[in-house]
Each structure stands twice: as C-alpha cells, then as structure tokens.
Design a protein that fits this description.
Blueprint (H helix, E strand, L loop, with lengths): L4 E3 L1 H6 L4 E5 L3 H5 L7 E2 L9 H10 L1 E5 L4 H12 L4 E4 L2 H7 L16 H22 L4 H17 L3 H6 L9 H12 L1
Helix pairs in contact: 3-9, 6-7
Length: 188
Amino acid sequence: MTTPTALIPAQAAARLDDYTVIDVRTPGEYASGHLPGAHNIPLDHLHAALPALKKAAARGTLLMVCASGNRSTTACTELAAADIPATTLTGGTTAWAGEGHALRRPDNASPVWPMERQVRLAAGSLVVLGLASGIRWRPARWLSAAIGGGLVFSAATNTCGMAAALAKLPHNQPRTTDLHATLQALQD
C-alpha cells in the first residue's frame, strides 16, 4: 500500500503538466470550475474507475482534486488501498483559485452550487421548516433537532451523510457517456 502525498497549489501549478489531474467532485461542481486538464470522476464512482486510474498512474502521477481537499484525500486513501499512488491538492480548487490560478469551465455547462453550499441550503431549510411547523405541531421541532445533531456528528467525524444524499440528485450525477469517455481517455 502506498502513502498518499499532498501538494500546495503553488507546487502543483509549477508542474501541472506532469500530472494527470482527477477531480472527484460531482459533475455540477466540476462544471462550475476545475483545474486545467482535469478529468471528472466523482468520488462515488472511483471504485469503478480503478482499472483506468491504475493505467494512468503507470504513465505518471495522479493529482486528486476536490473543493477543499477532504474528498481528494479520501480518494487518495482508496487508491492507496488499491496500490495506486496518488497525490492530493491541499485546499482543493478553493485554495487553487484563492492563489490566483485559473479555473476552466465548460462552455455549455450551467454552474451548480458547490456541495458545501448545497448542504447549508438543505440543512438550513430543514431547520426552518421544523421550527415553523413546530408552531402548529410541536413534534415537528424534532426535525430541527435531528438536523442539528447530524451537523454536530458531521463535524465530529468529518463525514457528511447529507452531502452523500445530495450527490445522488440528478444535477450532481455524471452522464454515463461523460464518465465512459473520461475512463476511456485515461486508458489511452
């Protein structure tokens, strides 16, 4: 098993052409801005992409990217378990753009909110719904308590069940042809 390494944006930018960049965010997040030359393989499809990623890693270093670095670190751990070496971009596309590096956007893509923003909207809406409904039906307030408890659990474990659920929405799913084309490109 290999140990994943991490690069800061300046290090990655200096040698970006040396890497095969894999963006593990949802297709909607990817469309809102990604590193130049990045391929989109959502984290929940990574296992199916292992053969293609193994071939790509044999030709050069994989640089895993997400919005903040959490999902790309998870991807590196999964790849390391499959004996595929990979590097993660510390701080993700947020840090990349924050240091002034360019992000690419497909011409025909409509931007989708980043997953963190989608989670904040969903959690906040459910809390307000629980409190408002609780005025008429007191047990509805438990919805707000459950969401609050879920957010605490999410912070304590650095996982997010709501993000996993939101990632399954149609606007966050890759079209089969896009994922197939990406995997084919990595194997060539």
